[in-house]
Specification:
mainly alpha, DNA polymerase, domain 1, hpI Integrase, Chain A, 3 domains, 8 strands
Length: 388
């Protein structure tokens, strides 16, 4: 007997049917399961180049049907990923979804999108991850694997996949991530002199001299910047919010109140005066609930801050501004304090890695203990005239 194309034969209920489809140039196999509640014929199908291949696929299909599975034969990785984006990321931050989307579009869908979810094998994924390990950092590689695993898990919960083969593969090492750099004292001084009188200058001063994270600075409001305080207390900033989900800071210990060096307080005071003047000229009414670094009244996107930061570095004379990111203002803050001899335990407390238990427990209902160590050191590193 040979696998020569023959026309379809009507199958009895529950019987397999194998026939040649000239339009697809493949053999089609189907199992007749009667009719759906909507009155349509229920005939799950498989396809293959030979009858032997189709028979094997039909056996697997019937096995899945026998265990109650409903995994579609032609359900692809691309469809699983899209379904996950559509229904599996509810409530996630838009920035996180954008990151997942970029990784999926560049590394998952182009490589695996056409593959049938039911046909994925561990060996295939091992080879795929090994290839990706040559071009992605370990963190990016971990996220790419997670996107595929979570997409298939989402499909499993909806009866579109019987197993998640991603759970069977190990994560390769990946390329080392780009190490963070720190500004030297000379570079920091140059950055602090560039574009004075602009919002990005005030932003750099706050990040570099106070140690505020970029996701903490962008949602910062003036009601949390205390420039006029009692004679016994210096100006300080409450770092209680971030752009993360529900406005929470990176960790509970990241919620802290920090004294500002005199230079930072002076720059932010001038920045606030400019904003208040612009508000008045536009016929608006000033509100302390306004953002410190707004863009058309809304919160700035991280890309906008990064572009302006690199523009400032270019003005400061940096040869390769694109080699720097805003997060390196914070690493520079830590490095400058460390070089100055501030103990690591104190630095960790200032940047919100440990300590400040009262600030963690209490929210807005009483005066927090304000951390002064970093400000005092920065006043000595970058001298500025003390206000009278």
């Amino acid at each position: 007997m040979s696998d020569e194309p023959k026309g379809p034969r009507k199958a009895a209920n529950g019987e397999d049917s194998i026939y040649w489809d000239s339009s697809k140039n493949r053999y089609i196999g189907a199992v007749s399961l009667g009719y759906t509640p909507a009155g349509k014929r229920n005939r799950p199908k498989v396809s293959g180049k030979t009858k032997t291949e189709v028979r094997q696929k039909l056996k697997l299909l019937k096995k899945e049907l026998g265990t109650g599975g409903k995994a579609p034969v032609n359900y692809t990785v691309s469809q699983a990923v899209e379904d996950w984006f559509a229904r599996g990321l509810k409530g996630r931050e838009l920035s996180s979804v954008a990151t997942y989307r970029s990784l999926a579009n560049n590394h998952v869908v182009p490589d695996l999108g056409r593959a049938k979810v039911r046909d994925l094998e561990a060996d295939d994924l091992d080879e795929w991850l090994d290839r990706k390990a040559k071009v992605l950092s370990k963190q990016s590689l971990k996220m790419v694997r997670s996107i595929l695993r979570r997409s298939i898990s989402h499909a499993q919960r909806r009866g579109k996949a019987m197993r998640n083969v991603v759970d069977l593969v190990e994560l390769p090492e990946g390329k080392p991530g780009r190490p963070s750099k720190s500004l030297t004292l000379a570079q920091a001084e140059a950055a602090l002199q560039a574009k004075q009188g602009t919002w990005i200058h005030a932003y750099v001063v706050l990040a570099l001299l106070v140690g505020v994270r970029t996701e903490e600075a962008r949602p910062l409001k003036w009601k949390h910047v205390h420039l006029v305080v009692d004679s016994d207390l210096r100006p300080y900033v409450d770092v209680w919010r971030s752009v993360r989900r529900n406005g929470e800071t990176k960790t509970q210990k990241s919620r802290r109140s920090l004294t500002m060096p005199y230079q930072a307080a002076s720059v932010l005071r001038a920045h606030k005066e400019r904003q208040m003047r612009s508000c008045s000229e536009a016929g608006g009414e000033w509100d302390e609930d306004q953002l410190v670094f707004p863009l058309d009244g809304e919160q700035r996107h991280s890309h906008n801050v990064l572009d302006n930061f690199r523009s400032l570095l270019k003005s400061a004379g940096f040869e390769n501004p694109k080699d720097w990111t805003t997060r390196e203002l914070r690493t520079s803050f830590v490095s400058l304090l460390s070089d100055y001899g501030i103990p690591i335990e104190v630095i960790a407390r200032v940047v919100g890695h440990s300590g400040t238990q009262t600030t963690e427990r209490v929210y807005r209902k009483q005066l927090r203990p304000v951390i002064t160590d970093g400000a005092e050191a920065m006043d000595e590193i970058f001298p500025s005239e003390e206000p009278e």
